[in-house]
Structures are given as C-alpha cells and as structure tokens.
Automatic annotation (TrEMBL):
Record's keyword annotation contains Hydrolase: no
Species of the source: Lotharella oceanica
Keywords: ATP-binding, Kinase, Nucleotide-binding, Serine/threonine-protein kinase, Transferase
Pfam families from the UniProt entry: Pkinase
Record-annotated active site: 46 (proton acceptor)
Entry protein name: Protein kinase domain-containing protein
UniProt entry tagged with the keyword Transferase: yes
Positions of ATP binding: 50-51, 64
Record Gene3D superfamilies: Transferase(Phosphotransferase) domain 1
Position of the Glycyl lysine isopeptide (Lys-Gly) (interchain with G-Cter in SUMO2) cross-link: 48
GO molecular function, one term: protein serine/threonine kinase activity
Residues annotated as domain Protein kinase: 1-141
Length: 141
C-alpha cells in the first residue's frame, strides 16, 4: 500500500513541534494501533517516528515489524533490540521485559511530538543508556 504522507519524523521536522490538538489526534491513532497489537499478543519493539507513516489525511500506518514478537514469545523477552533513543529502561538494563516496552516508546514519541526533540539524546552511548535507565531528561520550560 502506498502511503503518500511520508514519515511522522518528516512531518515533525517540517513543523518543529505539533500543536496539542495535532499531537492528540496522531497519538490517539497510534495508541489505538498499539492497543490492537497488544490485544493480539504482538509486541512491536521498534516504535519510533520513522516507523509511523501517514496517508494524505494524516491517518497513521505502522511499519517495520521485523523485531516484533508474538504470543508466548512476547510475554518475556530479553533481546536488546530496537532504536536506542526509544528503548525502555528495563531493556537498557538487560532485564526481562514484556509487551509493555512499547508503552515506553509511545511516551518518547509523544514527548518528541510535543517538544520537538527526543527526551534522551546524547552523543555518548554510555551517557544515553544511563539517562534512559535512570529516567533522566530535561523538561522544556
């Protein structure tokens, strides 16, 4: 299926930040999509702005299910995978995690849509992983 609206990442680059209403409308769709996946026992595990496409009416389409897990395999995972800026703390710490890792990524996406920058964005990977693990980020004023 051709999706003419491009990536959510590209749209955010164009506008810098989304209005509360635009962020709400897009995020609501995204939450519904993830709720559907989770109800089917599917963990996406690589939610990020680049994996959310938009059609011409700004309806979202999730892509890249290459890291997803299904059923029993999605109940207790240990693989370090996903895009580092969106990783949940338990993944960074090497702990077992479940389908809820997608919920953390949703929070990172919402923060980025509303603030125009990632909550965890360090050049040094060790510093980045420590910040994620400890939940250390700055709120915009």
């Amino acid at each position: 299926e051709y999706v003419s609206g491009g990536e959510l990442f590209q749209l955010l680059e164009q506008f810098a930040v989304f209005s509360e209403m635009d962020a709400f409308l897009l995020f609501h769709q995204l939450c519904n999509a993830i709720a559907y996946l989770h109800a089917k026992g599917i963990a996406h595990r690589d939610l990020k702005l680049e994996n959310i496409l938009l059609d011409k009416k700004h309806n979202i389409k999730l892509i890249d299910f290459g890291l997803s897990k299904y059923g029993e395999a999605a109940k207790k995972m240990r693989t370090l995978c996903g895009t580092k800026y969106y990783l949940a703390p338990e993944i960074v710490r090497g702990e077992a995690y479940s389908i809820q890792c997608d919920v953390w990524s949703l929070g990172v996406i919402l923060f980025t849509m509303c603030c125009g920058f990632l909550p965890f964005d360090h050049d040094n990977e060790v510093t980045l992983m420590k910040a994620i693990s400890m939940g250390l980020f700055k709120m915009p004023s």
